[in-house]
Amino acid sequence: MALMRRMELTLRPDRISTFEQVAQKVAERAVSQKEKVRWNVYQTMFGDLLSVIYVWQAEDWTDLEAQETAEVRMRRFLGEKEGQQALEEIRCCLERAQQSVSIERPELSYLPDQPTRPAPFAMVTRIHVRPGGVEPFEELVRKVAEAIPKVDEPARLMVRQTIIGNLREYAAIRPLQSLKELSAQRTPADLLIKAFGPAEGGLIFRTGNEAIEHIERRIVAYRQDLSNPR
């Protein structure tokens, strides 16, 4: 069971440049030292502009447990004195930090191929499902994934479900090579109606939409300069 550890940082507006300088130094050391633990970093372009997201992949819980804490890793990369200073600088840059763990839901996704590198951008929709709404919501997403190739929609869809954090939270992620791709992509409602007809498609969308308690969408950009990619 592949896991994803996600840490979302909310930065102080007056400390963004300081955070980036320290984060870039850590990433450079990781790359130069051929660090085995990999991570990717994304910054919100449209949405909460103070948000930076770190993502680590793990094969299973044993692999996740073996990953060092940020404190241990930074001291190892930078040395005890410089690492401690960097940690203090990072802490002064943060308003908030939240960590969660999720799993892939391939049966709800449409990924005809596995990319070798992160896309430059992604549209991320985070959904909180109402109590008792999991089944109709998952049916909605499953049908959206089914509709994409059915109508030759130029999109890929990856769905993840939180297992540590808000247990009724899902993330629907559309990787983008360019923001202009959004101009050619249909909304979920339009996709369902095009693929299954107004009656069936409309019913699937309404039933699934009623199962949603809260939904939020953002566009993020990949920050290779802050990452230690594969």
Average pLDDT for all residues: 94
Instruction: Briefly note the CATH topology name of the largest domain.
Output: Alpha-Beta Plaits
Helix content: 25-40%
Shape: elongated
Give the H and E element order. EHEEHHHEEHEEHE
Per CATH, the architecture of the largest domain is 2-Layer Sandwich
Task: Kindly describe this structure.
This protein has helices spanning 16-32, 61-66, 70-78, 80-93, 134-150, 188-210, and strands at residues 3-11, 39-46, 51-58, 94-104, 121-129, 158-164, 169-176, 212-222. With 230 residues, it is an alpha+beta fold. The chain has two domains: 3-102, Alpha-Beta Plaits (2-Layer Sandwich); 104-220, Alpha-Beta Plaits, CATH 3.30.70.100. Strand 6 and strand 7 form a beta hairpin. Helix 1 packs antiparallel against helix 4 (80-93), helix 3 crosses helix 4 (80-93) and helix 5 runs antiparallel to helix 6. The longest helix is centred in the C-terminal third of the chain and has 23 residues, at 188-210.
Helix-strand blueprint:
Layout: E1 3-11, H1 16-32, E2 39-46, E3 51-58, H2 61-66, H3 70-78, H4 80-93, E4 94-104, E5 121-129, H5 134-150, E6 158-164, E7 169-176, H6 188-210, E8 212-222
Antiparallel strand pairs: 1-3, 1-4, 2-3, 2-8, 4-6, 5-7, 5-8, 6-7
Helix pairs in contact: 1-4, 3-4, 5-6
